[in-house]
Amino acid sequence: MDSSVFNVYANALLEIAISKNETLEIRNEIKEVKRIIKENNDFVLIMHSKALRLNDKYKIIDKVFESCNLLLKSYLKVLIKSNLTYYFYDILKETLYRFDDYLNIEEGTLFLSSSLNEEDIDLIKNIISKKINKKLDLKVLIDKNLIGGFKVVLRNDVFDSSIITRINNFKKALKKE
């Protein structure tokens, strides 16, 4: 499917959320719904099923996402009615990008060689945030291969301060000489 269709839906939801001053709330809920859909492959198959009537699919949306904003639930129902359930994840991913662009948020992953306290994680986030001039929403993962240090992977950037990268760079420099 053409991703420009995804953009149309994403931009429509963003415009309505802006008008209702609910962008951050809906952005966070989109992130959660996207995660749920990714972790539950059968959900998309159920929503795509011709055996279920439209109203039954709506009831499932209301039940599964009962704590979500009414606007987001309506959005999901519009996607169902438009027969786009098979593309739920991709559309939500694109929608999250639109919200992040509007809110000046960059989502990514912080890889650490070992656990750090929240203060140190916040310090890393603040340093990278200032470099890219955006707020960061980072998932934190432990990667023992880093040996020490950290690596931040964003949509278009990588900030690598890991010991393994320093060792590899040192090896490359030695080979050049």
Subunit arrangement of the protein: single chain
Q: Could you give the distance between the termini?
A: 51 Å
How many strands in all?
4
Summarize the main sheet. 4 strands, mixed
In words, what does this structure look like?
This protein has 177 residues and is α+β, with helices and mostly antiparallel strands. It has eight helices and four strands; from the N terminus they run H-H-H-H-H-H-E-H-E-E-E-H. The protein has helices spanning 3-19, 23-39, 41-48, 54-64, 70-81, 88-103, 118-132, 163-176, and strands spanning 105-112, 135-142, 150-154, 158-160. The chain has a four-stranded mixed beta sheet with strand order 2-1-3-4. Helix 7 links the parallel strand 1 (105-112) and strand 2. Helix 1 (3-19) packs across helix 6 (88-103), helix 2 (23-39) packs antiparallel against helix 6 and helix 4 packs antiparallel against helix 5. It is elongated. The relative contact order is 0.12.
Would you kindly provide a brief summary of this structure?
This protein is α+β, with helices and mostly antiparallel strands. It has eight helices and four strands; from the N terminus they run ααααααβαβββα.
Key terms:
4-stranded mixed sheet, alpha+beta, 177 residues, single chain, 62% helix
SSE blueprint:
Elements: H1 3-19, H2 23-39, H3 41-48, H4 54-64, H5 70-81, H6 88-103, E1 105-112, H7 118-132, E2 135-142, E3 150-154, E4 158-160, H8 163-176
Parallel strand pairs: 1-2
Antiparallel strand pairs: 1-3, 3-4
